[in-house]
Amino acid sequence: MTAPAQEQPRLTRALEDLAGQAPHGSPDPTLFARATRAHRARRAWAAAALVVLVVGLGSVAGIGALGRTTGSMAPASGSLDGGLPSVVSEVSPYLPGTGGKPWDPVAVLMEGERATGIGAFLGRTTPGVVAVSTAGEYRFLDLPDDAAGGYALSPDGVHVAFWVTGDPTANPNTGEPIIGVGVYDVVSAATQRYPIESAHGLDPRALTWVDDDRVAFDYGAWLGGEGDDEMSQSTSAHAPGTVVWTPATGAASVVDGFRLTAAGAGFLLDTSRNTCLDLASGARTTVRPPHGISGAYAVGNGCRVAHEWRRTSPGWPSVASEDRTTRYRQVARMRQPLAVDETSLTYWGPSATTFGPRVELTGYAVWRLDLRSGETTQVVGWPRATYGTPELIGLATGYAHAPTIQAQPPVGVVPLPWLVVGGVVALLASVAVLGWGLRRTRVTAPGRGLGERRG
Amino acid sequence: MAEVPARAGFDDWVSARRPALLRTAYLLTGDPHDAEDLVQTALIKVVPRWHRIAEDPEPYVRTVLSRESVSRWRRRRWREVHTDRVPDDLASAQHDRDVTDREVLRQALGELSPRQRTIVVLRYFDGLTEAETAHVLGLGLGTVKKHGREAMARLRDQLGGLVEERGTEETGRPVADVSSR
To answer: Which residue has the higher pLDDT, A34 or A454?
Structure first.
């Protein structure tokens, strides 16, 4: 075999001759230190970029998993029909909505700040309605655009009643005048409306469910609209009576001269006239609430009326009732020093129990009061919320005697838009940091740029 | 504190071998400044591994130098224009007796692709076999042979009798010791 130099002796000699023109500069004495620093810096940049990359990928990957996971609750006693959750949790403003699609019956309705649209990416929120289904799932309840508040949940949790906005026949009294009542069927996602003709819009007063099928409401009609005199703008004429409407059939009747205070179990209560009306028989019962009481009322159990009784001392409320033969009397007294919300009494059940939310140091809760023993039992609890306790809007009282659902915090309420943006930004940043860091260490470490020529 | 003896060994080795590295680098780049850059870059890259190669750093440094020469061209080719045509000044230079043979060789080497140029330098200046050249460049032996044949053919066209008509089959050990260059 022949050595390369022997193969091309003239080329080898020419190369050696040319190599003699190579520079003869002295070595850089700091080269080792600079190279060591550059190597360390490069490793640090690579590690930092790797961390950012992992975080970015983790965020992006986790979003999908969290987004797909919805709140899950297991029935505590194997109930197949669901029930009230034992605890409700604060939800993220980015919680998904029902989207106007059929859903499960609602167990709890409460207030919640919601981030929607472009503003969601900027953290802007608007008041929304959070629904917890009887299966324990959380969603913002997407109601029709003309829903204007006054939400009332039917006892079976299937329907939500509300006042609707629209155009009156003349100049409106407010920017968004009320022109009737709507009922949204959560299960079928259908909406029924009961329009009420008025010149300037309605003055909503009371809206509540008589039972699972009938909704009762009371209203006034504004006497003037924008541009009219102040007196007529601020005055409303009371309607001829209370309307009882069955959305499923469209049937409606007016109880003449009745001013609705509360309703339940087929009864209407008019505290201005001390009257309780049995819608089935038409029988009217006189009730006489004590003087000086302005609490909330719950009607049921044969026109027994429960309301907040006298507060003998701060924090010691009680509940009284009256049937058709007796005056109001105190039937139970809460043993715990509670500060009961004045609008607390929401249900008067057949087994002489009632519900009422209360505010205490640890949060908000719905309690069941045993009228015979006075014992209270927490039914639905609210943990302390980050930005204020969400107010209860409605409770599916038809589930009052069903076992509560063992509640878990809603999973998947992460701020999805922010995480999506954050994850992508982190991902891009990691790539940019990695590239920039490597380039920086490569270019600056030798002491002069690779392509930089000496003058 | 193993860095101190490592640094001392590195500095000693660089002082002794830098001129040889610069000569090889000059043939690879054709420019004295690029040659210094190439050597410095290669040395910076070997520092993190110095404690492992300190016993015999030459093969590793040569490998880094050769591969960096090719990769530097890849990184910089976007701003360099390559042409297969011999520049007019080179063509005229070949007929200008005032231009030395080494300048003709330098420009002829510059007309080769970086990989071809590196193979020529490793084979006929550093005295490596084709197998050793393939190992240094991380290429297959067939690739080295192919590029070597093409390089020699082009050099033969441009340099005439300086390049002899011989095969490029596998050869034995180089006669000259690389470390002596």
So the answer is: A34
